[in-house]
Amino acid sequence: MKFKKQLHVQHYGLFFCFLFSGLSLSAKDSETLVALQNATRTLSQAVDLHLTDAANPLVNSTVDITSEEAWLFFDNMKPSKVLSNYKNAIKINGAVIAPFNNCRLVVYKQGAVVIPHASTYQPLETFTATDFGGSSQKYTIDQYYTNAPITDIPAARRAALTDDNNIRSFKLKRGYMATFANEPDGMGYSRIFIADAADLEINLPIELSGKISFIRVFQWEWVSKKGWCGGTWNEPALFTKNLAHGDTQSDFINATWYYHWGATVGGSDNATATTLLNQEFVPEKWGAGGDVSAFYSNTRWSHLLGANEPDHSEQSNMSVATAIEEWPILMKTGARLGSPATTDYSWLYSFMNECAVRNYRVDYVVVHAYWGGKSPSSWYSDLKKIHDTTGRPLWIKEWNNGANWTTESWPSGSKGDHPYNDANAKKQLSDLKGILQVLDTASFIERYSIYNWVEDARQLITKNGDLTLAGEYLASTTPSLAFNSNKEVIPVWRMNVPKLAYSYSEANGKIRLTWTDPNGELTEKYVIEQSLDGANWSELEEISYATEYLTDVLSPDEIPHGEVYYRIKTIGCEGTIKTSNSIKYDVLKTEKDAALTLSYLKAKDDWSMYLFENPMNENAVITLGTPTYRNRYPVSARTRNVNKNSLELELKTWKNYLTGDYPAAFSNPDTVPFIALPRGYSQFGNIKLLTDTLLNVGKVWRTVTFDTPFEVVPVIIATQLTANDETATAIRVRNITKIGFDVCRKYEEGKTNVFEDISYIAATPGSGLYDDTHRIEVGITSNAAGVSYSNPAKIQFETPCNYPAFFGFIQSNNDETAANLRLKTRNSDGVEVFKQKEQTANNANPAAEIIGYMVLEMDTPATGIHSIVTEKSHTPVYDAYSYTIRLSNHQIINRIEVYSVWGAKLISASGVSDLDVSALQPGMYIAKVNGNTSLKFIKQ
Fold it and tell me: What range(s) does the Asl1-like glycosyl hydrolase catalytic domain occupy (predicted)?
């Protein structure tokens, strides 16, 4: 008969719930007898025949199983004993039973079950239509069905998936587990279906329907909760009694599963995948790295354990990040997965949270619990807390009533040396009974395996091969089946935000949008959106299954604010919408065939692209100026993808500022000048310049020699042109002479060297005009200066410079930490600059340095971005943190005056990016900005 089963919904606080569609479970008739006596039975129909006698359930009787739907249960006899006692009395279609050949003979709770399924049996059938319509395919156990198998899978275990991305329903026979995944390597949305009690007939949920690219089918075994942990125990008496191995110790304690911290089944001669009958073996990936081939070549075993005590330095000693990096190795096996086993549950919770972010499947949580002196109620509440926090059933993979390092009291002995004697044995028995009562009755406890080697008083098996009092009790228990479908956790996919990037295609003159989408086949479609102001968005196009898009470059006349923004929306198969980061490009007004191009760029803590209205000359070299202190974090200005049509710019802060509870966030874009000069030598007035590039600059100092020596020692200004590494760095120079200089890139402490290309300008001190009317000045400080924001180097220009574009650079190397130059103030008369270093090496104050500079006069404070700015965007803003006044659009202030409330003019300046008012006494003031806007502010 067939019936529908109403499933209970489990509400977990993290991220899982039950999702089923069209679920049907097929059951069969059942018959229970104490024993068969003088009988000949043929099981030709769908029936479960249970024999309950533990001593002799088949008395002068035979059973011939001729239907694949007929199962024979021995409720109280182990599989090995069934085989040795009744091999000739049990037949499959007239032939004697041959486990793993013409039948399965496996553990069922404390007994055994004979299943008439040959090794070639195909328990899974899939269909291309819902409700089991369309074409169908069948699948055997232990094969990896995928059209793109990973290389670790043995060739003999690979099979093509005929209906890749075309499966919508399936039937799974009782006694088997099937794993489906979106991606051909077993990743993506991954879900396990277990037919432990009845056949499953299911219309696939939306996450899998038409999206399956990986299938693996496993045999299911009906183990009880009780297991054993242990490998080879090298005691002579144990070898004599055949108790030296994990499988035989498990048998002695009547455990139905075991593990030994290894990847492959091992133990006695009977411990192989086709001879181990009384237990299920559970492989474990003990730690990071190592040979992983065994996990993909294993047969029969349906479960897999994560790392052993990664939170302990003397054990696998793994960070959460490393464990997360390793987790796909386990997922790609298709096995039912248990978390790394920890005693530090904060580590566990961090791991589970990271898995949730990445949509990694974790089917049960594994812990170790050596809790001495706890009451049974405390055991329950503490375990329940782990279950409630993680939302998973628990395996207690190592546990005992305390350990040799715990401090609870015992009748005799001391910490680390509690002997096995009558008094201690009675205490261990009493405590163990209370703990087992919790473990055996708590529905969220799926499995437990006691650890034997934590002092003689706590042992279950002695080194002489005898059971202790507690061991005798443990061996006598008959806990329930381990798996509880009411506690099964079905993953719910959390849609992740796609990452959008872009580039300029020189081949066709278009913007190429590209994105990475971690949602894979769970994305239904993408919506490409565009904005001309970063606030109001319009849809460009709706597309499916692509991860790039070409769009036309807009002309300056089409861009009212000089910037074009793009983003994509990912629409999940169930309707969830996730919006990517927005990216933008700016159009810079540049002159055609200009020998020198000078402008300002808006820089932020993400890559921004700038398109040149007219292409640069082929041999133009880009150099960046000095960032302001508008954002307080240390920054490294760098470019990438520099060509004649475009460049990309980013302000990168040091990695240690991007972690922790308050990661760095740039509240305002900066304005950084840039200059493009032809490669080679140039002359402006009495200033001689050399512009060039260097390839593959790294940590090691390298000497650069000029083709033609200078007559005086030049100033060096350098810029990073590539971004091969995400790490912020500082370009530093030293030993500058008339014939050359040394250069290197400095990193945060402990970072690996990566080579980058740089540009540099070598310019002799002096002044002149770089065109007919605009000044250029090159100079150098006479003394080391600029050690901090509060003690900057003050640089006075020889002649006032309207709207100065400032290019400063550290010329010396008086300490070894990575550091860059920052601009504190800037006006037409001069600047204040200071050295700002990264903080991972030490917190010592930076050494003062010699500072060189080049400053160029500009016509207007415009950034070089073609724009029409609204009145609102000129709003003056007071920054109480730095005691400065600036414009909200970060442009140069033409004229600013600060008055007291009584009308007295206190400060005035022209052509500045911001005004420092830190010298004012606390009180209220009024600033008049650009002649037509006022700002009232309070100086604290």
Answer: 251-472
For the chain, what is the mean pLDDT? Answer: 89
Are the C-beta atoms of 66 and 60 separated by less than 8 Å?
Answer: no
369 within 8 A of 399, measured Cβ to Cβ? yes
pLDDT in tens, 568-599: 999 999 899 999 998 888 888 788 877 788 88
Residue 776 phi/psi, 5-degree rounding, is -135, 140
State the pairing for strand pair 70-74/111-115.
antiparallel
Q: Is residue 109's pLDDT more than 60?
A: yes
Distance CA 101, CA 79 (A): 15
Q: What is the pLDDT of residues 43-69, one digit of tens each?
A: 999 999 999 999 999 999 999 999 999
Quick check: 774 and 858 in contact, CB under 8 A?
A: yes
* Per-residue model confidence (pLDDT) at position 663: 56
Cα 605 to chain centroid, rounded: 21
pTM above 0.85, yes or no: no
Residue whose token pair is 């003031």: 925
- Residue 114 CA to residue 98 CA, distance in Å, equals 10
Q: Tens digits of per-residue pLDDT, 262-319? A: 999 988 888 899 999 999 999 999 999 888 999 999 999 999 999 999 998 889 899 9
Q: Which burial class, exposed, middle or buried, applies to 754 when counting CB atoms under 10 A from its CB (0-12, 13-18, 19+)?
A: middle
What is the maximum span of the chain, computed from C-alpha positions, in angstroms? 119
d(CA 370, CA 328): 30
Structural domains of the chain in order of their starting residue, each with its CATH number:
26-115 (no CATH), 122-219 (2.60.20.10), 226-482 (3.20.20.80), 499-587 (2.60.40.10), 589-857 (no CATH), 871-939 (2.60.40.3080)
